Amino acid sequence: MLRRSTLTLAVLAACGGGDATPTVAVEMAAPEALTPADDTLDDLTITVHYEDGDGDLGGGIAEVQDCRADGLLVSLMLPQIAPDDVVDDNIAITGTLDLHVNDVGAFTTAALPAACSDLGVAALEPNQTVFCVTLVDAAGHRGDGDCTAVIGLQ
């Protein structure tokens, strides 16, 4: 199974300093159903809202866990988001990111990964999955994750 992933920075806003641990909230995932057997219908975009109290989220990673199995983890490198002076001065940043998980393949559902069950994801039916996102900033601060709604698999 081949899975390609990309990241798009959508919006950035800066304000005063805060907690160094990044937070993430899934705003939406599209499409609502994927067809792993069709390369034109197996790509997912997850839009997340983030906050990072010290501005160093850029250079970190977004971990996207497909809840069908532990081994279905995609790590997306985050580009520099804030200017160097914002990072140097530990200024908080907030915005949205579009995370692209491409080529979601067919896979038999295994035991629910801890990354998913710890965030409240229930057991999955064979024709569905959930994706959970965790942000880790450049300093290694790992935030709590958030998950998509159930994504259908056709």
How big is the Rg? 16 Å
Number of individual domains: 1
Number of helices: 2
Helix content: under 10%
CATH topology: Immunoglobulin-like
Strand adjacency order, main sheet: 1-7-4-2
Structural class: mainly beta
How would you spell out the order of helices and strands?
Answer: EEEEEEHEHEEEE
CATH architecture: Sandwich
Let me know the number of strands: 11
Q: How can the largest sheet be summarized?
A: 4 strands, antiparallel
Alpha carbon gap, first and last residue: 16 Å
Task: Give the mean pLDDT.
Answer: 90
Low-confidence stretches: 1-15
CATH class: Mainly Beta
Work out the strand percent: 35-45%
Shape: elongated
What is the topological layout?
Blueprint: E1 4-15, E2 23-30, E3 33-34, E4 44-52, E5 61-66, E6 73-77, H1 84-88, E7 92-102, H2 114-117, E8 128-129, E9 131-136, E10 146-147, E11 151-153
Parallel strand pairs: 3-11
Antiparallel strand pairs: 1-7, 2-4, 4-7, 5-6, 5-9, 8-11, 9-10
